[in-house]
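agent> fetching stored inputs for the flavin mononucleotide docking request
agent> found them:
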Amino acid sequence: MAGFSASSQSKAMRFSVWWLVMAYAVFFVITWMFSWKIMNYFLSESLQTIFFIWAVFLSLVGFYDVRQRRHSILRNYPVIGHFRYLIELIRPEIRQYLLESDEESVPFSRVQRSLVYQRAKNLPSEQAFGSIADVYATGHEFLTHSLAPVPRNAPETFRIDIGNAQCAHPYSASIFNISAMSFGALSANAIRALNAGAWRGGFYQDTGEGSISPYHLEHKGDLVWELGTGYFGCRDENGNFDPARFAEKAALPTVKMIEIKLNQGAKPGHGVVLPKEKISPIVAQVRGIPMGQNCASPSAHPAFRTPLQMMEFIQKLRELSQGKPVGFKLCIGRPSEFMSIVKAMLQTGIYPDFIVVDGSEGGTGAAPVEFTSHMGMPLREGLLLVRNVLVGAGLREHVKIGAAGKIISAFDIVRALALGADWTNSARGFLFAVGCVQSMSCQNNKCPTGVATQDEERQKALDVVSKTERVYRFHRNTLISLSEMLAAAGLTHPAEIRPEHLLVRVREVEVRTYAQRYRFLLPGELLTGTDVPPFYRQAWDGASAESFHHPPPSA
Ligand SMILES: Cc1cc2nc3c(=O)[nH]c(=O)nc-3n(C[C@H](O)[C@H](O)[C@H](O)COP(=O)(O)O)c2cc1C
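agent> prediction call returned; pasting tokens
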């Protein structure tokens, strides 16, 4: 007789659960037909019946599993294989609630999220028993305090004027605002709560590229209107920029600034297709697109192809908006390409009012993994480069710099300002304030807190009134914390923060100031300096205002 082969043994193990439930179902039928009462010693009759129903159901599931062709796991492990899918489904929750450590960033750590929740709820965010950070770890950063602290300044004064001499209506912005997130990525209620919070706190909400929805206008909070490559809200039927539609919306009193989005850190250079299934009547109306067909946002702007044309476009938007500040947002890719934009500023004499630098660590509703993790320059390097090129070209006084990329705490603001930013934006920080729990389901319309979904039922869970208050408090308490840090450092306004104020541990036995660690170019140095680092010199010399594209300098 042939032995029970290893492969048969393995199959017996894999199929055991399915065979067991079938065996129970058959056994139950036999005992019932012959009126045997043997099972009554172990289980009540009602329980036996419930088990029988389950056994029949699972037996049928097993038949389905071995016959279907989509999931190999289920063909090999009928019935029991479903547990894998169940556990996969709840893995993020198990990880977040039970396994994640306090400082593990996924992408925001529990410590960071808790800080936002506490500030948003007006709960004390002080910590007992000292720091849990390893202050001797390489990369640990700290602000130097002063032996002559000054009185704390009111956070309301932490504002910055945006708009150079070429703009008729400069805007006084808070130094901490809500970064671009579209209606479409976010629910109507999330947009409402963010906007109402911005209104209460006197800061701005960036519309994101999905245009200005009615929910952005209900509460009269300040708006920065972002124009992506799809020109939503100001496009013609072919997707090109429509000046008349732009002028109409730009004239809205709550629109304070116009931001051309070149790209964003989480998916730089990646066009987006909005599938027709997601184009509801309200989305179609807000974006100015037809229903029933996919809508593509190209990866580059159809309105300009060269840096010189981009400057002309900026000037055109300024005129069409009756002189509101116009700037652009980008994540740095090739340094020489950014330099070609700055050369175009020099050549045309047209200066954007601001540049918002986004870091590759930035968030998004949805993007390919390769883009989120391996494309684009992180905020610190990108910000320093933008600051250096503007200073080096002698243009810093004309162009203000904003920064976004995991800015959650007052210290994150300090760090960005020390590297050259004038103000900061946060996207996911404000999402936490409106209730986001980092379930990372923005892309599947199943956001558990109603923040990033278009599902009518789910978004009802987001109470606009209470979340408005949280948005307001998160902003306010963060700036109060900033004012306390500044006072302890002997400073009265964020604009006084300098690279010398910040220290970073570069190795176990050495700390350096930001001024020592990074090379900060001097005013006009790129134009006339003789000691410019080769990296800057090569890229600057290779850049031309005629084209974005320059071959990277060979080593
Ligand atoms: C849900 C979501 C939607 C976003 N939509 C846009 C957008 O429409 N336009 C844009 O420029 N950036 C968009 N961003 C990027 C943010 O504006 C921001 O630049 C980036 O997330 C970095 O900020 P954070 O680290 O505080 O989230 C989005 C981010 C998130 C999380």
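agent> quick read of the result: The two ends are 73 Å apart (CA to CA).
agent> awaiting further instructions
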